[in-house]
Predict the structure of Cytokinin riboside 5'-monophosphate phosphoribohydrolase.
Amino acid sequence: MTIPSDSSPDQVPPERFKGPVVLRRSEMARRTSDQRFLDQRPEVPGDFTRTDPWRVLRIQAEFVEGFDALATLGPAVSVFGSARTPQEHPEYRTAREIGQALGRAGYAVVTGGGPGVMEAANRGAVDVGAQSVGLGIELPHEQRLNDWVDLGINFRYFFARKTMFVKYTQGFVVLPGGFGTMDELFEALTLVQTGKVTRFPVILMGTAFWSPLVAWLEQIVARDLKIAPNDLELFHVTDSVEQAVNILIEAHAASNGSGA
């Protein structure tokens, strides 16, 4: 067998992560850990690594790795938004400015580690020498942590990853995004509404994008008493990066001053 003198591929192949495991080429066809965990179809008979008790150990390991990596993070804010936002879009520029402003204010910037708005916020943090953190997730399609993440963790399970966002950050800044962004937004609001977390600012950046949603919450959801009127005070809507950061600073100063 003749071995070519240059055996490296012409292009870097697509890849995705299963926790610390990297999958490329045909291996990418494997189902995700969340799919197998939530799917009711029977697994391969006799394969103990596909049983729920084994998964519990794997889930435990994700929490341990996350706690170990983030325990000394210090003050931090999560920035969420679309992975599909191109670099030339104004929302990318806004997210980068948010990352810069948060970094200057002494916060680490935590994102989902992907492209688009997440990349922009991480990039902004790096611009000013702040900590830039990415919490990635195993997805069925190609994905990797963006190049502006300095501390990155890849998770198999969404719920372990979501715990890290809430446990190690003191607020959310949410830019326009899709289902994933909405999921993170409403989970945060639910945790604040139910008192699971306290003094946790949630800031929606982009009045043009968020105003229709806010109007629906006011005119339909609150009017029909599905939420209390004061639940609409659980979040702030703004176009100003400076105002967003000031809201975070003031909320955290009030929290520290209360001794809570």
About this structure: The radius of gyration is 20 Å. The CA atoms of residues 218 and 232 lie 7 Å apart. The longest helix spans residues 52-70.
